[in-house]
Amino acid sequence: MNRTPADLQALPLLPRDADGPVFKAPWEAHAFAMTFCLHQRGVFTWPEWAAALSREIAAAQAAGDADLGDTYYRHWLAALEALVAARQLGTAAELQRYRLAWDHAALRTPHGKPIELAASDFADA
Fold first, then answer.
1. At 102, phi and psi to the nearest 5?
2. In terms of residue numbers, what domain contains 104?
3. How far is CA 113 from CA 50, 116, 117, in A?
4. 44 and 84 inside one domain
5. 60, 82 contact by CB (below 8 A)
6. Please, what is the end-to-end C-alpha distance for the chain in angstroms?
7. How far is CA 35 from the centre of its chain?
8. Predicted pLDDT at 75
9. Among 77, 86, 110, 121, which is least packed, fewest CB within 10 Å?
10. Strands 16-17, 20-21: parallel, antiparallel or unpaired by DSSP?
């Protein structure tokens, strides 16, 4: 199933400029890309995605998030994790294991270098 960039118009509150989505950090772009790929594979529709993201944003605001735009992709990632778990593409434990491995990899990676997972990153996960 092929999608065009016009599909991006269906995404709520997506930080963008005239050229498309805007990211403050590489992990934000990675989360965006994973979401787009899962959508292209038919894992969820844009309305399902929009509902999941809206739920995460509303929950964060109810918990005191000032909604200044600096936490948008944290909500994005939480929505992605929720949909992955709901579609049984990964368990909460697996997501936590990878989150810990990424944290470990980030700590051992010199600033400015790409973060790459290694088998040793999962030793503490």
1. -65, -40
2. 91-125
3. 33, 9, 13
4. yes
5. no
6. 35
7. 7
8. 94
9. 110
10. antiparallel
